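DM from R.C. (forwarded with permission)

"hey, sorry to bug you on a friday — could you get me a structure for this? deadline for the figure draft is monday and I only need the backbone to look sensible"
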Amino acid sequence: MTTTTAEHARPRRFFIPTVTKQCWGFMIGSAFFALASTPGLSEAMGSSTANLLCFIGAWFFTTAGLMQLFLSGAVSVPVHYAPGRMVRAEWLAAATQSFGTIMFNISTTAALTAKSISAQEHYVWNPDAGGSVAFLASGLLAFVAYSHSAKLWDLGKRAWWSVLINFVGCVAFAFSAIGAYILPSGDSFDGSLANNGTFIGALCFLVASLIVLPQWGRPARRHRGAVGGEYSPVIQ
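My reply, with the result:
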């Protein structure tokens, strides 16, 4: 390969979705959400800074979610019963989670400017709740997808633990949405529940992606130029 060809190839490879980039996207996004909701620190930095951190983190979530959807494979597979094809659980889980990340984009963007109670309810809480429901559904579908290729109870596999920890994070985000419900007074239903749910959920998503990084499954290489293969976990 000539120098010119290599220079043109590098930018293209940067935009190619990989499991490694997907995992890092979720990890970085989770880190922003965790930082914004860290008990004690979130109060010290103020709501404006916390909202900005969540806004940035949501974009990493969305990018990683789209990568996950792209890497999840075919939408459907042929089956021997009517109607002849079935939507794959892995694709449906990825699509549902990707939809949820977009809802969080809408919510965190609106949170930067929403001042009235009506705006906070319709443009911040509603899409936040929708995203949390989508995440919860995707977490359940991830178990279905995993059971199609491996044992439903598989303590010895990192991918299984990733699915489980991811589901715990989805549940935590659901509780966060309940706590963030906007009351007629303009206050949240339970600010502590909303904040702690976001913090726990973000940490779970970070760990769920961290433990399935393809690097952990690669054998040590003697030569610097050796390339290790990547594998795709069921869901992050």
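R.C.: lifesaver. Residues 69 and 94 are 5 Å apart (CA to CA).
me: no worries. The first strand starts at residue 76 and ends at 78.
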